[in-house]
Amino acid sequence: MTQLRIDNATARALWLTSHGLASAPTGPLDTIGVIRDLGFVQLDTIQVVSRAHHHILWSRNQNYREHMLEPLLREKRQVFEHYTHDASVLPMEFLPMWQRQFRRKKAEVGRSNWFGKHLDPDLIAHVIQRIRNEGALSTHDFETKVKGEKQMWSRPPHKMVLDYLWYAGELATSHREGFTKFYDLADRVFPQDQPEMNDQAQITALCQSALARLGFGTLGEIRKFWEACDVAEVKAWAQTADLVAAEVQGADGSWSATWATPDIETRIAGLKQPTSRLRILNPFDPAIRDRVRLARLFGFDYTVEMFVPAAKRQWGYYVFPLLEGSRFVGRIEAKGDRKRGTLTLTNFWTESDRLRTDKRKVKLEAELQRLAKLAGLEQVVWAAV
């Protein structure tokens, strides 16, 4: 039997289609549908232009606006917050396969030196009792302080307890005010009529749903999608799963082994040419989260440098990749100022000099104008030529 081979152009088109980036980001908006299709949307506190979760949703449909996510959490209870590779928002119907992740994170966090020394049983009981009696509370409703010398990422004991109980699934995010998280008892946030799944069924669901969203991937990439299974669990699943063995061509022409969904050939047959529209992606976009895979498929070397000392950065603190068609053509550094109503382009790089054309600058200006609308900004300022 001839093994399926997926050339690089097809692999790129598959990848962008799987991540909702192959078609123009227009048409009727279905925010929860976008979240379901992606599987998760990473949450992030940093607001350079618009926070990562808003930018990621906007990248799939530019009719999205920042106020549209909160009602799905607060009123409709269509999503919940928890930890994949990072804090994320997930569709509420994923709860049955997420029970093992609550257990895994509870054990992992509970035995860590970072949390463990702050997990006083009396404080845990006090926090739970207050929330039970008073309803959803934020960290600002408690008064414990960091003892001793404050260090980077230091948090007071009550914050450690709140986060521990949140990781464990005993508390859940009820809502947010601004970006401040309010914690409530999980059984007052999560629906109580969810079907039960045993642990093996959860592993199967997690792996299958990951591959369905990836289209193709190595076992390591399948595992990394949710970060809710270990290596041995994914390997054991693959031994009995309905998978298609394939080879995928990288940007450098090399071929590597991968696994694909059973319907991969149907997906390939239905592919359309990715839109030629220029897109400004967020640094935490799920399509580019795995930098190794990004480099292999697209030949694009990208690193988030916000935690790199300024003097050692190659590009900048918060740099946005530029996707055009099925290739990454450059990157920009931009900053939003909500008081002044401006979006300022501070740096603009292309992957080669020949890509720096007047036509591409016009495309970039149009996309900056659209991004400004997401953040409620009125004017785009080019500080970079």
Structure description:
The protein is α+β, with helices and mostly antiparallel strands. It has a domain of 105 residues: Aminopeptidase (3-Layer(aba) Sandwich). The protein is 38% helix and 19% strand. It has 15 helices and 14 strands. The strands form 4 sheets. Strands 10-11-12-13-14 form a 5-stranded mixed beta sheet, with helices on one face. Strands 1-8-9-7 form a 4-stranded mixed beta sheet. Strands 2-4-3 form a 3-stranded antiparallel beta sheet. Strand 8 and strand 9 form a beta hairpin. Helix 10 crosses helix 11. The longest helix is centred in the last third of the chain and has 17 residues. The mean pLDDT is 94. This is Winged helix-turn-helix domain-containing protein. It comes from Tritonibacter litoralis. It holds the Pfam family AlkZ-like.
